[in-house]
Amino acid sequence: YNITSLADTGSGQITVTIATDFSSSAWAGLATPGSVATDFSALLTSKAAGSVILNCFNQGGSFADATAMDFAAFGDQ
pLDDT-derived band of residue 36, with 50, 70 and 90 as boundaries? Predict the structure, then answer.
């Protein structure tokens, strides 16, 4: 699905490398974290044409790993 790699680059942080780069960093993306025990929020940072960092936070606002993470990206390639 156009992803070359996923890397766990820190607590609550996943770096996604996109296989076919977008034409610019002006693409739209969304991430939805999930966990059985705790509510989480997600934020896309360091968005570039060929990669993005997904940050996940727990209810207290601290970086935390969710049990699952869904991610979608839309834009011109």
Answer: low
- Cβ atoms of 13 and 7 within 8 Å: the answer is no
What does the pLDDT read at residue 58?
Answer: 86
What is the pTM assigned to this prediction?
A: 0.88
* Contact in structure between 50 and 18 (CB atoms under 8 Å): yes
- What the block records as the tokens of 13 is 């942080």
41-53: b (≥16 Cβ within 10 Å) or e: ebebeebebebbb
Question: CB within 8 A of 22, min separation 6: which ones?
Answer: 49, 50, 73, 75, 76, 77
